[in-house]
Each structure stands twice: as structure tokens, then as C-alpha cells.
Amino acid sequence: MRALFVVLGVMFLVLQFQLWSPDGGLPQVWQLSTTLAEQEAENQALRERNEALDADVRDLKDGLEAMEERARSELGMIRDDETFYQVIER
What we know:
Elements: H1 2-20, H2 26-62, H3 64-75
Helix pairs in contact: 2-3
């Protein structure tokens, strides 16, 4: 009976060592959980960016309004029948 307690005690100590050891134990699980949370946050940000880019692509494919808006804002273009006035403040 005493030998059984000794064997169980040794097994308990070995399991405790494996549980708390830095390679493969709880510390590694905590570190991996933190890494996973960071990666999920980055994935969500990238997912939102992709959705915005997808919406831009759909707008550019479907209508001329989006192309006209980009030409006006990014390239400074105007229509033939428009007059451009530039106001310079002092």
C-alpha cells in the first residue's frame, strides 16, 4: 500500500512539473492565447479594410459617379461646361 502512495506521489509531481514547465505547460498556453487574441484583432481590421476596398471596387464598376468623384478630388478635374474658381486667402 505504501508503494502505491509513493508511485502516485511521484506521478503527481511529474504531472505538476509538466503542467508548470515553460515548454508545453500553462505559461505556453497563456502566451498562445495572447497571440491568438492579437491575431484575431489584426484579422478583423484587415477584414474591415477588405470590405471597404470591395465597396470601392463595386462603386467603380457600377457607376460613373464614383469615378467622377475620384477624378474631382484626387486629380482636380472639372467638366467642360464648368468654370473653375480658385480662392486664395491671405
